[in-house]
Amino acid sequence: MMFQVRVHGRGGLATVTTTELLAIACFLEGRYAQVLPRFPIEAAGEPAEAGCRIADVPIRGRERVHHPDAVIVQDTTVRTQVDVFAGLSPGGYALIDSPEDKPGVEWYDERLSLSRTAIVPATTLALAYTGRAQPAPALLGAFAALTGQVSLAAVIAAIYRRFPARLAEGDVVAARAGFGHVRATRRQLAAA
After folding, report:
1. Residue of 66, 93, 145, 176 with fewest CB within 10 Å of its CB?
2. Rg (CA), the chain
């Protein structure tokens, strides 16, 4: 079975890096993965999108991810320009980078399931642990906790593979914090 992920962000803000790290983590767990970047003509600062397919068998198609099983929103401002939840599979996952626990009614969307949606302050975590506004590691830690499609250990190993040790240390802490944030939120929901 194939699991498809679409990441929305802005050009120059590591949208593709998020999918690359996810693909590396999947490879490290013995799975297949495919990264599908999609850029606007003027990429820097413009809405950007990247897709990642995950499967236990080789992946043949190379078309854009039209019907994702999960959507990761790295920059909430793209929602004013792009329908980030377009084609989201029924019961699909949504992971949103926002410093607010509930970004407000403008984020309400009937396609989202409360039990499969997580709001994570990924950029805030990245700034706190790395000094850089690069939310990919924190988001992928959160993705691991939310979907179970990849383990936190594989995300951490992917970070060490992708980045020099001096950068990786803070990114690993951010990934762990993203994972912990989703786990804590899930426990609160279960207790309510």
Report:
1. 66
2. 15
Residue-wise pLDDT for 30-81, tens only, equals: 999 999 877 555 567 788 899 999 999 999 888 889 999 999 999 888 888 8
Q: How many Å separate Cα 131 from the centre of its chain?
A: 20
For residue 48, CA distances in Å to 10, 33, 54, 62, 108 come to 5, 20, 20, 18, 22
Q: 117-120 and 93-97: which strand pairing?
A: parallel
Q: Which structure tokens are listed for 54?
A: 């995950």
Give the pair of three-digit tokens for residue 92: 């699909």
HSE (side-chain half, CA atoms, 13 Å) at 157: 12
The full set of domains in the chain, from first to last, is: 3-191 (3.40.920.10)
Alpha-carbon gap, residue 163 to 83, rounded angstroms: 32
Measured between alpha carbons, how far is 89 from 81 in angstroms, rounded to an integer? 21
For residue 55, the cross-strand partners are 32
